[in-house]
Design brief:
The protein is 6% helix and 24% strand. It is mainly beta.
Length: 219
């Protein structure tokens, strides 16, 4: 029996939102009840962007540098956020759906009540980040770096975590059942308290043995 997926705890009435054609960060760094559709904001730089109760759809935020970005009650759909730097970001009640997030850097970030659905997160970085009530569903997380992060209670449902770095993480009560866990970079203690199924156990055992430098020979 897998853990029940957490449903969004907020509702946005799209009809009540104000349509915004661009982020206009030069003159404004706070947006509330806004609707961004097909906004071109690649390579955007802002030290204090704050977006609340809004929707971002089919937009381009790739290569953006948004240190300490604050997102609260935000839905982001079909948007390119690849290779962006969102260091020390604060994300609360956020839904990412079908977003391209290859190489995004969310190091030293705080994520609470965040859901990633069908997102591409290969080569992403979440180093030294804190996760609370976070769900990854049907996401590609290959070679993603979670080193030194607190992933307690995080749900990974049907995700590909192949070659991900899970060194010095807290996986207590994290549910990884149904996800691919091949060739992980882990140590013996990294999976303490995690929830896996019997099929995954053998895969993880080999990864831990390799990390210890053990030589496995059948003859």
């Amino acid at each position: 029996m897998t853990s029940p997926l957490r449903k969004p705890s907020f509702i946005i009435n799209e009809a009540s939102l104000d349509l915004v054609s661009d982020l206009g960060i030069t003159h404004r760094d706070t947006f509330e009840q806004s609707l961004f559709v097909e906004v071109k904001a690649n390579s955007l730089v802002s030290p204090a962007l704050k977006i609340e109760h809004s929707i971002i759809r089919k937009s381009d935020l790739s290569l953006s540098e948004l240190k300490k970005i604050q997102l609260t009650e935000v839905i982001i759909e079909d948007t390119d956020i690849s290779n962006s730097q969102w260091f020390e970001g604060s994300l609360g009640k956020v839904i990412f759906k079908k977003c391209r997030m290859t190489g995004i850097q969310l190091n030293e970030a705080f994520l609470e009540d965040v859901i990633f659905i069908e997102c591409i997160l290969d080569l992403a970085q979440f180093r030294f980040s804190h996760f609370k009530n976070v769900v990854f569903e049907n996401c590609i997380l290959r070679e993603t770096d979670f080193q030194n992060s607190n992933l307690k209670g995080t749900i990974f449902k049907t995700c590909d975590l192949g070659k991900s770095r899970l060194v010095n993480v807290n996986l207590q009560d994290a549910d990884l059942r149904g996800s691919q866990l091949t060739s992980l970079i882990v140590t013996m203690n990294d999976f303490k308290g995690a929830i896996i199924n019997s099929e995954q156990l053998m895969t993880i055992t080999y990864d831990i043995a390799e990390g210890l430098g053990l030589q496995i020979k059948d003859e």
